[in-house]
Specification:
Blueprint (H helix, E strand, L loop, with lengths): L4 E4 L6 E6 L5 E7 L6 E7 L2 E4 L10
Antiparallel strand pairs: 1-2, 3-4, 4-5
Length: 61
């Protein structure tokens, strides 16, 4: 049996409904947290979760 881990919400820290294994790879995955009701774009590789930050909109001159 492989070890699985729950992905925690990067904003509030609570568990989400997504589990990852050691061989799981996610790219640009929209992670939804049922506790804080927010969605965060993440990338997972080797059970390391990285948050993808979107640049703010620039004003046009």
């Amino acid at each position: 049996m492989e070890k699985r881990e729950w992905i925690g919400c990067p904003l509030c820290g609570h568990k989400t409904r997504v589990q990852i294994r050691a061989d799981t790879m996610l790219v640009n995955f929209p992670l939804f947290c049922p506790k804080c009701k927010k969605e965060t774009l993440i990338t997972v590789k080797n059970q390391k979760v990285h948050i993808i930050t979107r640049p703010d909109a620039k004003t046009q001159c």
